[in-house]
Write a structure and sequence with these properties.
four-stranded mixed beta sheet; alpha+beta
Length: 140
């Protein structure tokens, strides 16, 4: 039996930040729908996103960007690992070590949830997965 068959059912609810509720009357209906869709495009909490961004910044500095890609962008999916695409504007000397170190630091902060880190830097070869993550990923 696959491991996901053992997951218990929990009802999903959309939780909006309080500030978003106060700004709703000032937005056109279409703009509000767009904003709501943007808020619900990933299955990570605000706190988790902030933690991930902070850990990447601590490790690589402010010149790096982080995108979430993969199954965590699908609100209808359950579980799954956290796939991160990290772009760095400087060459990386030991990419495998850096990726593993980031993965472990973030995994610990996410209480053991598996984290995959895909790096992009000027000196690294670009593969199809890099292009897909760049195009389909959502900034944290």
């Amino acid at each position: 039996m696959p491991p996901y068959a053992l997951a218990r059912f929990e009802p999903r609810a959309t939780i909006l930040p309080e500030a978003a509720l106060h700004s709703a009357p000032n937005l056109a209906l279409e703009a509000w729908a767009e904003r709501l869709a943007e808020m619900n495009t990933m299955r990570l909490t605000d706190s988790q996103r902030q933690t991930i961004r902070q850990l990447v910044t601590d490790e690589l500095g402010s010149g790096s960007t982080v995108k979430l890609f993969g199954s965590r962008l699908d609100d209808s999916a359950r579980g799954g690992d956290i796939d991160l695409f990290v772009e760095i504007d400087a060459p990386v000397e030991h990419p495998a070590q850096l990726s593993a170190r980031l993965s472990v630091r973030i995994m610990r902060a996410m209480h053991g949830r598996k984290v995959d880190v895909l790096l992009s830097a000027p000196n690294l070869n670009e593969q199809t997965i890099h292009r897909l993550a760049r195009e389909q990923g959502a900034f944290l």
